[in-house]
Amino acid sequence: MDTPALFAGGRLCLDFINTACMRRGVEIEFISDGEELMRWLRMAEEVTGTQLCDQREYREGMLSQAIELRGALHDLVHSAIEQRPPSAESLQTVNGILRAAPAYSQIGYERQGFQESHGNSRPEDQWRMAIAADAVDLLCHSDLSLLRQCECPSCVRVFYDTTKNHKRRWCVEKCGSAPKAAAYYRRKVAKAAEAHSKIVEPAAGDALNAGDLRLQ
């Protein structure tokens, strides 16, 4: 897995959506089986610092749950980008996960004073709850005008633009290099065609003048 490309979304929920993407027009699936899903969750923990999964082994049904959640989040995020209402089914899927969250607070004490911690009585579902909660925070409490889809024609990744001037257009630099290269090639071809036309035009004029001389 290409870690920078996999986690270019800037948010946990966007990175999760981007586990299904396209490269040069070909669909790419990064969590096609349970082993890949667990690998992605471990990588996401390291990159985002969010605790997602206590268990280290794949549990039956996790992959189908992941695909269902990803599809719902894809619809919600793209509805925000396209400024359209999301489907009721997508909202129901995410809300169902959040409703089942058996989270609770715990109080502790250390040298600096009281400390609050959070527990979960269903750690096997913690990864889904964390991703769904991140989506709620993004869609309800963030500037949705900064939510974008990569402008590379062959890419479908989404990202949250946190750059200083908010002019980010591509998910990764590689996606930006392809349009730049294509534009450079078009300019080069146009310049060559223009130069060729300037060479051909005088030659045609010379031929016309030679014809006039013969007629005389």
Could you list some keywords that capture this structure?
single chain, alpha+beta, 7 helices, 54% helix, Jann2411-like fold, 2 domains, 216 residues, two-stranded antiparallel ribbon, two-stranded antiparallel sheet
Layout: helices, strands, pairs:
Blueprint: H1 3-6, H2 12-17, E1 20-23, E2 26-29, H3 34-48, H4 62-81, H5 88-99, E3 103-110, E4 113-120, H6 126-141, E5 147-149, E6 158-160, H7 173-215
Antiparallel strand pairs: 1-2, 3-4, 5-6
Helix pairs in contact: 4-5, 4-6, 5-6
Number of strands: 6
Strand order of the largest sheet: 1-2
Q: Any idea of the CATH topology of the largest domain?
A: Jann2411-like fold
N- and C-termini, Cα separation: 78 Å
Report the biggest beta sheet as strand number plus sense, adding barrel if it closes: 2 strands, antiparallel
Tally of separate domains? 2
Number of helices: 7
- CATH-level-4 superfamily name of the largest domain: Jann2411-like domain
Shape: elongated
Helix content: 40-55%
Q: In CATH, what is the class of the largest domain?
A: Mainly Alpha
Order of helices and strands: HHEEHHHEEHEEH
Question: What CATH architecture label of the largest domain applies?
Answer: Orthogonal Bundle
Structural class, please? Answer: alpha+beta
Q: pLDDT under 50 segments (min length 5)?
A: none
What value does the average pLDDT take?
83
Percent of sequence in beta strands = 5-15%
InterPro entries: ABATE, ABATE_dom_sf, Znf_CGNR
Protein name: Zinc finger CGNR domain-containing protein
Domain Zinc finger CGNR: 147-188
